[in-house]
Specification:
With 456 residues, the protein is of the alpha+beta class. It has helices at residues 2-8, 12-21, 30-40, 42-59, 112-179, 185-220, 244-254, 256-276, 332-398, 404-439, 447-451; strands at 68-82, 92-110, 282-295, 306-307, 309-310, 313-314, 318-324. It contains eleven helices and seven strands. The longest helix is centred in the N-terminal third of the chain and has 68 residues, at 112-179.
């Protein structure tokens, strides 16, 4: 496991522990790490909790249109001195008690503000869904980007080490030629300088691998990560078949960012309706059923009595309508309407900005993907050319036509081209996901074609 050796080379004990378990560590695919990240990534878990909270908050608006039922009861106890003129023997201290209970159901019949709030709840449900979709897509792209950043860093380390070995061989050759008098000391010093430079680059590349490994571990919560590399000479994805403007048009209708802005505008319009409802009357209907019981009699009757009434009708509920007409609220309603209309204009401007931003991001992602695919082909051609140039310079050096620095420069150019080619391939794969993210069509299933390009 080369990564472990690089990471823990200064620590022999840790190295031994890692190597002892290296056979148990299996390389994880991109899909596997994404599934792990869904259960561990703190920002995604936070977005999921916010989504559930938003759903619960949106459903709270049902309370405004459904009946409200309440149970109320009262109990009183009275100590009184009762005197009866016709029955003096009954005079004395008496205790009287009254207990009453009622059930009240109130149904809003005409409340425009309440119905506007209920409609807002439906929009908020859709808004929460769009926000969660955006969070899922962001996690998918972030894990993929971090995954390929690690692979790119590991490739860079391997290329630097290969270059270091090649420079070491060239340094040894320069020393031998100097010793036999067929080369100058300049060639030796050039090779030594290039060797020292590649050694410094190796140290930097090792540290970069550590950092990229930590970044991926932050998303998945694991330290035993071994990313699967791409297959050798594997064919990348095909370029987009649809023209750029088709992708832009698709983004305006499917992007969760645009949908959030559209729903926010709907909520703002309903907020204007709520504010305007402050000038409108409200009508509620209610039904009350209750009873009263006297304990210990009353001041007019020493005997206990029971009466069950409902608005003076025994055993019958009472029904009532309550009409409320607002007359003057200290200009609060007028200024509230002005506030909500201004916020509606803000929401409309935010929607326009969201559409323009998404369209720009889609165009950038599309052009970046097309350029990336062309860049890969160019780097593949450059790799073959630099390899041929290196072979020619080595041959020329062996026959005394070229000097050592020519070979060193050709080696440096070759390995730089290899690094650039590897990174360009990774950027193309991430670019396909970013294009779908910009249009709002990205799903976890889009990882499967990329996952199939990884080595088994």
């Amino acid at each position: 496991m080369k990564i472990s050796r690089n990471l823990f080379s200064p620590l022999p004990i840790a190295l031994a522990v890692v190597l002892s378990f290296s056979s148990q560590v299996r390389a994880q695919s991109l899909v596997t790490l994404y599934e792990i990240a869904r259960e561990y990534d703190a920002s995604f878990i936070s977005a999921k909790a916010q989504y559930e909270a938003n759903l619960a908050k949106a459903n709270q608006t049902l309370g405004g249109i459904l009946p409200n039922i309440s149970l109320g009861s009262t109990a009183t106890r009275t100590n009184a001195t009762v005197s009866y003129d016709k029955a003096p023997s009954s005079n004395g201290e008496n205790t009287f008690g009254v207990y009453s209970a009622n059930v009240t159901m109130t149904q809003p019949l005409y409340r425009p503000a309440v119905w506007a709030t209920y409609k807002q709840g439906g929009r908020q449900l859709l808004l929460a869904t769009a926000q969660f979709e955006a969070a899922e897509q962001e996690l998918l792209v972030r894990v993929t980007q971090t995954y390929f950043d690690l692979l790119s860093s590991q490739d860079s380390l391997e290329f630097v080490r290969a270059q270091k070995r090649a420079v070491a061989e060239q340094l040894a050759s320069a020393k031998r030629n100097f010793e036999v008098g067929t080369a100058t000391i300049t060639g030796v010093r050039d090779a030594q300088a290039r060797y020292d430079l590649t050694h410094a680059q190796e140290i930097s590349a090792e540290n970069d691998v550590r950092i990229k490994l930590l970044a991926l571990g932050l998303a998945v919560g694991r330290t035993d990560i071994k990313a699967k590399p791409l297959r050798d000479n594997s064919k990348l994805i095909d370029p987009p078949k649809d023209p750029m403007e088709t992708w832009v048009s698709r983004s305006e209708s499917m992007s969760p960012i645009v949908r959030q802005a559209e729903l926010a505008l709907d909520v703002a319009k309903l907020e204007v309706d709520k504010a305007s409802a402050g000038h409108l009357p409200t009508l509620d209907g209610s039904i009350v059923y209750g009873g009263t019981r006297n304990f210990g009699g009353t001041s007019s009757s020493p005997l206990g009595t029971t009466a069950t009434t409902s608005s003076n009708h025994i055993l019958n509920p009472s029904a009532s309508l309550t009409l409320s007409v607002p007359l003057f609220a200290g200009l609060t309603t007028q200024y509230r309407i002005r506030e909500t209309k201004a916020l509606e204009q803000k929401a409309l401007a935010d929607l326009d900005n969201a559409k323009r931003t998404v369209a720009q991001n889609t165009r950038s992602a599309y052009l970046g993907l097309i350029a990336g695919l062309s860049q890969v082909k160019a780097y593949e051609a450059a790799e073959a050319s630099t390899q041929s140039a290196l072979d020619a310079n080595k041959l020329g050096y062996s026959v005394g036509v070229n000097i050592n620095i020519d070979v060193l420069n050709s080696q440096s150019q070759l390995y730089q081209t290899k690094r650039d080619l590897a990174k360009a391939r990774y950027d193309v794969l991430v670019g396909t996901l970013k294009l779908r993210q910009a249009t709002g069509t990205l799903t976890p299933q889009d990882l499967e074609p990329i996952n199939q390009l990884l080595a088994p």
